[in-house]
C-alpha cells in the first residue's frame, strides 16, 4: 500500500478513488461505500439524505467511469482493492465502517484485509456491511462474463438495477456493456484472500427477499469471515434492494455502526 498522507485529510493522487458524498466535519464516524459491477460512486448519491448527521459517507470511484471515464479500467480486482485501500487509509481517524454492494462487497473484503495488515488501522475499522453478495469462500461456478451478449443482457435484466433505456439504446449499450462485462470478469476470476484469520470487526450481511443472484446459504457463510458479532438482515426487494429500500438499509447501517463504534477498542 502507498504512504498515508495524514489522518483526516484527503489529497494527492488517491483522491480520485474517493468521492465525499456530503462533507460533515463534525461527524463522529465514517461510512465507506463501494459500488457493484458496472456501478459508480453516483449509485450512492442519495445516502447522505438517509444517514444521520454523525455519519459522513464517502463513495469509492472505480477507474473508467464518471469523472474517471478517460482512465483505463482496472486489470484485476486486487488492483481495485489496493487503490481503494490507499485512498481510505488517510481517513481512518475515527470509527469507520465499509459497505460494499454486490461486487463491491468482494472488493470491500479485500480492502479490509489490506488495511488491517497495518495494526494501527484496527482500532478505526469497526464494521463491515456485505450487501447482496455470497461469502468470498463460497464456490462460484457460473462465469457470466463469458456469456454471449443476449444471454449476458438477460442476466442483467433479471438482476435489475439497469436502466431499460440504456439496454434499449445501442450507443448507450455499447458504452455500458464492456464496462460491466469487464467488472464481472474481475469478480469471477478473482482468487479471494483466505477467510482465516477472521476479520477483527463486526459484520452484517444484507440481502433482498427476491434477489435471484445470491442464495441465503451463500450469504450466511459471511459468518465465517468475522471474529466479531454477525448479523444477517433480510429486506424486501431484488438484487438492488438498497436503492428501493434506502431508508430501511440506512437505518440498519446506522444502528449497527453506532453499536460497533461505541464498543471499547
From TrEMBL:
Write one Pfam family the protein is assigned to.
Thioesterase
Record's family?
A: Belongs to the thioesterase family.
Q: Which domain of life is it from?
A: Bacteria
- Domain named Thioesterase: which ranges? 30-255
Tell me what organism the protein belongs to: Streptomyces uncialis
Name it.
Thioesterase domain-containing protein
Lineage of the native species?
Bacteria, Bacillati, Actinomycetota, Actinomycetes, Kitasatosporales
Signal peptide region:
none
Biological process terms from the Gene Ontology for this record are: lipid biosynthetic process
* InterPro entries given in the database record: AB_hydrolase_fold, TEII, Thioesterase
Amino acid at each position: 500500500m502507498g504512504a498515508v498522507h495524514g489522518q483526516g485529510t484527503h489529497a494527492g493522487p488517491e483522491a480520485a478513488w474517493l468521492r465525499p458524498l456530503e462533507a460533515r466535519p463534525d461527524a463522529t464516524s465514517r461510512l465507506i461505500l463501494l459500488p457493484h459491477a458496472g456501478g459508480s460512486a453516483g449509485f450512492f448519491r442519495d445516502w447522505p439524505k438517509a444517514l444521520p448527521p454523525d455519519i459522513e459517507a464517502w463513495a469509492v470511484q472505480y477507474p473508467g467511469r464518471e469523472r474517471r471515464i478517460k482512465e483505463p479500467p482496472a486489470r484485476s480486482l486486487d488492483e481495485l482493492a489496493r487503490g481503494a485501500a490507499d485512498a481510505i487509509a488517510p481517513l481512518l481517524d475515527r470509527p469507520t465502517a465499509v459497505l460494499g454492494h454486490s461486487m463491491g462487497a468482494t472488493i470491500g473484503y479485500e480492502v479490509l484485509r489490506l488495511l488491517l495488515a497495518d495494526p494501527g488501522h484496527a482500532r478505526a475499522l469497526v464494521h463491515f456491511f456485505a450487501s447482496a453478495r455470497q461469502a468470498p469462500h463460497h464456490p462460484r461456478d457460473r462465469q457470466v462474463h463469458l456469456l454471449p451478449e443476449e444471454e449476458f443482457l438477460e442476466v442483467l435484466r433479471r438482476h435489475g438495477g439497469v436502466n431499460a433505456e440504456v439496454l434499449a439504446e445501442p450507443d448507450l449499450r455499447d458504452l455500458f456493456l464492456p464496462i460491466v462485462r469487464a467488472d464481472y470478469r474481475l469478480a469471477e476470476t478473482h482468487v479471494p484472500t483466505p477467510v482465516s484469520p477472521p476479520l477483527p470487526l463486526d459484520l452484517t450481511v444484507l440481502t433482498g427477499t427476491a434477489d435471484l443472484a445470491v442464495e441465503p446459504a451463500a450469504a450466511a457463510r459471511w459468518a465465517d469471515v468475522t471474529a466479531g458479532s454477525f448479523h444477517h438482515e433480510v429486506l424486501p426487494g431484488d438484487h438492488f434492494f438498497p436503492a428501493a429500500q434506502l431508508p430501511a438499509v440506512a437505518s440498519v447501517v446506522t444502528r449497527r455502526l453506532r453499536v460497533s463504534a461505541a464498543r471499547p477498542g
